[in-house]
């Protein structure tokens, strides 16, 4: 008699997992086919004939897509010929269309600086969400000025609409840049946690209550942790972006500003990603020094700005990374807006011989800047 061999039979769960993977691969390939057509559509005038504002607007309405997905499809279709390795990786099931969309956006942003060979290996090793962050670091390393300019533009797009109903209720809607949003989230999230097992408020109500508590002076001082390489802090060429809680990777110019104030807890890494410095547990500017600064300046020192000291940061005229001290003569008070303008906005600020503060707009240059990052 022939011995009977056991035949392996996959379990229902294994079969379900395999089906899902196969369905997703088919969908990814269909997404690529759609992207090719979408790019061809965007290059023509078929969308204009129907009176649409753009090809993305037409796709959004007629193909039942959100604007981001429609724009990604057009971007992938337009860049596909420049992404042969990424395209093949999708065909082979090594990455998905979500990876490909991020790759296309990165190639579009970097132009000649784009290196597909390096990034496609990263895509194979990481989830789409993690790869999205990796590409932001690659964009910063390749062109830090363009990356910083994008973040500056996002700040200029900040909007907050406040309107009242007849019963006095206030409606809030708006848009914050990633860094500003991270600052808000870092304050709101700790205060919006449930207060105990009997707290039956929903998340949205807890967020609203936290915002009211914050505006009323409740809660404790929150910290945002920033992880940066020393090369990023020094704004050296090829340095990656820095990591920040609740936020996409941030530019070196933003780190320059955040490093002025110890309400931002920093972690510095060397080129081998080893920790070489952790943010101080006490303020960079000592409490007595801060009180002296408040007594001297009283408010933001920018011309015609009267934001109080409590809403202003201690700005180093010469940053500590360049040997500047935290002595009173190297410090001035700047409100958040004007502090941002000195760093991301490109303004220069100097103290004249008479002790007065002089602000110089970014359109005015006097040769190489004399001050280091602050």
Which characteristics define this entry?
single chain; 374 residues; alpha+beta; four-stranded mixed sheet; two-stranded antiparallel ribbon; 15 helices; 10 strands; disordered C terminus
Explain this structure.
The chain is an alpha+beta fold and about 375 residues long. It has three domains: about 15-140, no CATH class; about 160-195 and about 200-280, no CATH class; about 285-374, no CATH class. About 45% of the residues lie in helices and about 15% in strands. The protein has 15 helices and ten strands. It has helices at about 10-45, 45-50, 55-60, 65-80, 85-90, 95-110, 115-125, 130-140, 145-155, 180-190, 205-215, 230-235, 250-260, 285-295, 335-345; strands at about 160-165, 170-175, 225-230, 245, 265-270, 275-280, 310-315, 330-335, 350, 355-360. A four-stranded mixed beta sheet has the order 4-3-5-6. The termini are far apart.
Chart the SSEs and their pairings.
Layout: H1 12-43, H2 46-49, H3 55-62, H4 67-79, H5 84-91, H6 97-110, H7 116-125, H8 128-142, H9 144-156, E1 159-164, E2 170-175, H10 178-191, H11 203-215, E3 224-229, H12 230-233, E4 243-244, H13 252-258, E5 264-269, E6 275-278, H14 287-297, E7 312-316, E8 331-335, H15 336-343, E9 348-351, E10 357-360
Parallel strand pairs: 3-5
Antiparallel strand pairs: 1-2, 3-4, 5-6, 7-8, 9-10
Helix pairs in contact: 1-4, 3-4, 4-6, 6-8, 8-9, 10-11, 13-15
């Amino acid at each position: 008699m022939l011995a009977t061999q056991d035949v392996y039979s996959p379990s229902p769960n294994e079969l379900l997992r395999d089906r899902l993977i196969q369905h997703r691969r088919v969908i990814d390939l269909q997404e690529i086919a759609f992207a090719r057509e979408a790019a061809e559509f965007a290059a023509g005038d078929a969308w204009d004939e129907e009176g649409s504002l753009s090809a993305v607007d037409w796709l959004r309405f007629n193909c039942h897509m959100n604007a981001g997905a429609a724009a990604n499809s057009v971007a992938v279709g337009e860049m596909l010929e420049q992404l042969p390795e990424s395209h093949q990786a999708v065909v082979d099931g090594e990455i998905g269309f979500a990876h490909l969309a991020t790759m296309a956006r990165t190639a579009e942003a970097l132009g000649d600086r784009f290196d597909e060979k390096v990034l496609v290996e990263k895509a194979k090793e990481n989830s789409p969400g993690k790869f999205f962050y990796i590409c932001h670091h690659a964009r910063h390393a390749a062109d830090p000025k363009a990356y910083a300019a994008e973040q500056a533009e996002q700040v200029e797009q900040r909007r907050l609409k406040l309107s009242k109903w007849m019963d006095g209720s206030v409606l809030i809607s708006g848009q914050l840049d990633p860094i500003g949003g991270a600052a808000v989230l870092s304050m709101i999230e700790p205060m919006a946690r449930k207060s105990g097992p009997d707290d039956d408020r929903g998340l949205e109500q807890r967020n609203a209550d936290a915002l009211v508590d914050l505006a009323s002076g409740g809660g404790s001082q929150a910290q945002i942790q920033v992880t940066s390489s020393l090369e990023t802090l020094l704004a050296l060429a090829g340095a990656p972006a820095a990591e920040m809680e609740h936020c996409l990777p941030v530019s070196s110019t933003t780190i320059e500003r955040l490093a002025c104030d110890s309400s931002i807890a920093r972690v510095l890494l060397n080129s081998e990603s080893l920790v070489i410095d952790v943010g101080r547990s006490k303020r960079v500017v000592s409490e007595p020094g801060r009180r002296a600064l408040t007594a001297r300046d009283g408010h933001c020192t920018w011309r015609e700005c009267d934001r109080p000291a409590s809403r202003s940061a201690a700005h180093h005229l010469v940053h500590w990374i360049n040997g500047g001290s935290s002595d009173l003569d190297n410090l001035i008070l700047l409100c958040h807006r004007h502090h941002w303008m000195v760093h991301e906005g490109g303004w220069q600020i100097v103290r004249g011989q008479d002790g007065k503060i002089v602000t110089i707009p970014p359109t005015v240059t006097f040769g190489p800047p004399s001050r280091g990052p602050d």
